[in-house]
Amino acid sequence: MRVVGLVTEYNPFHNGHLFHLTKAKELAEAEYAIAVMSGHFLQRGEPALLDKWTRARMAIAAGVDLVLELPYVFSSRSANAFACGAVSILHGTGIVTHLCFGSEAGNIEPLAQIARLFLQEPPELSALIKKQLKSGLILPLAQTKALAEYLHRNDVVDLKPEILNNPNNILGIEYLRCLMALNSPIKPLTVQRIAAGYHDRKFRGSFASATGIREFLFTNRDIDSLKDVMPSTSLKILKEELSKGYGPVSWENFFPILLYCLRTADPAWLTNILDITEGLENRVLSLLGEAASFRSLVEKIKTKRYTWTRIQRVLNYILMEYTKEDAAYFDEKGPQYIRVLAVSEKGRLLLAKMRKKAALPLITRVAPAYKKGTALMKRMLDYDIKSSDIYTLGYGNAAKFVKGRDFVTGPIVVK
């Protein structure tokens, strides 16, 4: 039995995702597809447009057989932690045979070569990365410059450091590095991204980036205009959810809550928050009074060293009270469970096999799992539960500020 794994956010599920799903199953010659999907807060530090169960339902309706949640403690992180959390879950299922990811490169070999270099990190490369970091560059740029110098010094002409300039290539390299570190039998595959780029705001024929779709929805409620860039099943679910007032959710919905958190925060406490270094807390607090919106706050804080994405993540960590200590502990221990968000009728066979083969506890209901779980499992689950409780506050309607949804919402079964 061949099962292809996908690492996703589906924010929201669009034609590009459908293309990737179809191509992944074709390349892997797979009968089944399992997606590991971020929950309510995503890799770039943003809240999801729609809640995790809705996005999982979109995926199942489009042909994914099983959607698993990537815990918050990994889903909101930079590339290495995000990728390793997701790959560890796919590896832990015991049934995934292939991993297929999108990349700008469209070729697995150069990505694998760089992944091996970063995994082994020869002393010379390590020293070059540290040198670039000391010069003030953020890690991705430091790695790119260091890699370029390393390849030049060692006369490696068949690898281009520019491959690190693309976000999906970077994630792909991290997926490969994690597979190698785990000595996983999962075979990696890649599909070249087509048409709309990761940050592309424009619609190009039947393809649009998730960023372009979200920005359209934040300014335009003519949802039918999306019929050419989203599967009909996704569009139908999107309409249903928006008509009920469950989205679209953006950072602006949380701005008053964030202001409260920052205005009442002890600067000393802020230094314990993940990714706050070099006095960043002072910069955030000093510029707080000048911002009238989330966007203006980030624009004021942002510098060449502190990118938009890093600021978003830091503000998200403040909202979630995610500390450096917890992040280091979770990175060391890895995922502690496999949580099911949605399953197709066909996908129930996968669950049956996972109950026998999975290396991690399988969670379909949070309450009994929480009651019986280890202290570490509960600590990790607490962040998922908290992220849901905070996320509902983004609906802007007190009647929808539901607490404890994770305890009452089981896996969505799509027939």
From TrEMBL:
Q: Matching Pfam families, A to Z?
A: HIGH_NTase1 (PF05636)
* UniProt keyword Amino-acid biosynthesis, yes or no: no
Q: What is this protein's record name? A: tRNA(Met) cytidine acetate ligase
Q: What class of enzyme is it?
A: ligase
The chemistry this enzyme catalyses reads: cytidine(34) in elongator tRNA(Met) + acetate + ATP = N(4)-acetylcytidine(34) in elongator tRNA(Met) + AMP + diphosphate
Q: Where does ATP bind?
A: 7-20, 102, 168, 193-194
Q: What is its main location?
A: cytoplasm
Query: Can you say where in the cell this protein is located?
Result: Cytoplasm
Give the family, as the similarity comment puts it.
Answer: Belongs to the TmcAL family.
Q: InterPro entries, from UniProt?
A: Rossmann-like_a/b/a_fold, tRNA(Met)_cyd_acetate_ligase
